[in-house]
Amino acid sequence: MEDSSQRIAQEIDRMEHRYLVGRDQEIRLFLELLSNDHSEGEIINLYGTGGVGKSYLLDEFRRLSEKAHIPFINIDSRAFPRNPFEFCSYLLRLMRYPILQVEKLQADIRLLTELCADEIRKAAVQGKLVLALDTFEEFGELEHWLREDFLTHLSPEVLVIVSGRLPLHGAWITSPAWRQMINRLPLDDLQYEAVKQYLSLAGITQEEKTRYIWTHTKGHPLTLSLFVYTTLAQRQPSDSFRNEQEIFPYVVRTWLKEVPDPDIRELVEAAAVLRQFNQETLSFILEKQVTTEQFLKLIGHSFIRRVDRGWLLHDLLRDAIVREMRHRVPEYYDRLWKRCVLHYYLHVKESIHKKLISWESVEWVYYIGDRLIRTLFYQEAVSYQLESLHPSNWMEAERYIDNRRRFVQDVWIQHTDMETDVRYEYLITKNESLYGFKHVHLQQLFDLDENIVKLIRDAGGKVCGMSAIVPIHEGTLDFLESKPPYSAYFASLSRSKLHELRTPKDSIAGYFVEFIDVDYADLTMRQTAGLLFITHMLSARLVVTTAPANPFFHSIFQSLGFEKAKDVVHYHYDDHIPTPYFILDTRGKKLLDYLNRMVASFGIVQDNVVGEEQLLLLSNRERDVVKLLIKGRTNSEIAGELCLSEATIKKHVFNIFGKLQVKSRIQLMNKYRN
């Protein structure tokens, strides 16, 4: 029986080793430290969010240690009561030390700690041993004793692994001695190629199924393994996960074990509706002040990371929470969404006065765009670089165009809305893919303006796309009136309208987006093209574009609020097929009209918008007073609730009436109660 159990364990080990993908860098670091004969105390800090594969990787570290004939001891904090005696007892039991002798030392933790250190020294082969401390976030108060008393007794040859959801912080980092011993090893989600390798090992090799699973799991190992299990189980009866929809609540529960506090869970839900957030945006969305203490608790969780403009929930968790909220509390979710629309509306409106298109403008399109826009262009963060055409990259540009013409093929765009599971499918034919290049003459465009043609490079520097966007001003208008594919539109304009477009070069009237060419089947490149287009769209000018008569492009233009030009088409792509122009005129006050039109589509009336703008004039304390005034509280009651004097409250009320342009409490209540 024992031999049979051992064989099963060995087979499980073999299979787990086979399915370990995408962790080559982490394994290299471990082997390097394992083979270092001159180490003076090394700590590997392995950390990452729930389900990212920490325990799976620890098992691989164990296998590698055993292969090198080096003992590996794994202590999981969930396996014993968390105090020094129980820790030492558990460790010694793992090392097969007589338990009766351990109990005799219960009253003297110092001697028990020294006994553990001695036994570890004896167990070490050639001075080497690996000690892993798993689920470290649950060690709690035991952490101080481990750092200050236990680990200091170990010999320098012991390689310690501290594995948990969060990186080591506090005294681990502030102490120079500990800091120099720590080798940080963050675990991220798997990249696409690793996911593809994992699926291939599981017998899933179809490209469409691979991309579908990649889109839904975002490379999160736990979700990936559950998806594979469900996919394989559908081939035979199973009573575990009946379908893929059961996977996401399970993953959410796994993550949210970190968040027992209901107030912080409320913040997590609000953060899921936002794409990126900070303390101020959360306060606005929730319509109440989020304290600094609450915010610091929130961003301390493993599934939240810092980004350039704030903080971000893990993509998969955000998608799963939103999906769950839409079914559980649809009205509450809808209210949070409208608050997001309103928040970014106010920021975009402010940017109009500053004549500056901010990052918030691009974010606002995420909320006002329909599900097609969010699904196609806002699924994950992208990194790309635009590089103007120049003699130094001219050959690369010509090579890109030549390769597009030589290797053109039909493009299938298939993507699923993670919130609703609605599937989008579009086909761009070979001919349609090349229409944008039909009238492109690099030298002609370069002579007109060196910044018209741009190469799109990915994070690795590879040219993966090209754009041609012509500014409209006095220096380009004659060209636009006479050359395809622009001429038909500009020839249709009256003299007065053409005169409006003949602006100085340093004050352009708008853009003609001739093409943004990428591999639209590739999610990352599709998002790159979409965000580039949206950035120009929100530049407070006229934007004109044209595209083949294809539902993919036309659906995008209409979703973004573009209008089809009346009574004007061109035949520059195909002599037999009329091709329309699409226009978004956001010059001057027209941008505000566009913003208001899009906001109105969400049922956010203008009075609410004006009211919110006025509320932004108030200080945080004045907003607190307004909330209590609306509830009908007297000055005396408000003073008691806010721990202020009644005279201070009277002063606040006077300032509030002036800023909000109201003359009485009744008027205030009628205006802002909703």
What keywords describe this structure?
674 residues, 7-stranded mixed beta sheet, HTH luxR-type domain-containing protein, DNA binding, AAA_16
The low-confidence parts are 236-242
Indicate the mean pLDDT.
84
- DSSP, total strands: 16
**Which strands sit side by side, in order, in the main sheet?**
8-11-12-13-14-16-15
Round the Cα radius of gyration to an integer and report it. Answer: 31 Å
Largest sheet: 7 strands, mixed
Approximately how much beta-strand content do the residues carry?
5-15%
- What structural class do the secondary elements suggest? alpha/beta
C-alpha geometry: globular
Q: Portion of residues in helices?
A: 40-55%
Total helix count? 34
Termini Cα gap? 71 Å
Organism: Paenibacillus nasutitermitis
Protein name: HTH luxR-type domain-containing protein
Domain HTH luxR-type: 611-674
Keywords: DNA-binding, Transcription, Transcription regulation
Quick synopsis:
The strands form four sheets. The protein has a seven-stranded mixed β-sheet with strand order 8-11-12-13-14-16-15, sandwiched between helices. The chain has a five-stranded parallel β-sheet with strand order 2-3-4-1-5, sandwiched between helices. Strands 6-7 form a two-stranded antiparallel sheet.
Would you mind describing this structure in some detail?
The chain is built from 34 helices and 16 strands. The protein is α/β, with parallel strands linked by helices and 674 residues long. The strands form four sheets. A seven-stranded mixed sheet has the order 8-11-12-13-14-16-15, sandwiched between helices. It has a five-stranded parallel sheet with strand order 2-3-4-1-5, with helices on both faces. The longest helix has 25 residues, at 330-354. It is globular. The N and C termini lie far apart (71 Å). The model is unreliable at 236-242 (pLDDT under 50).
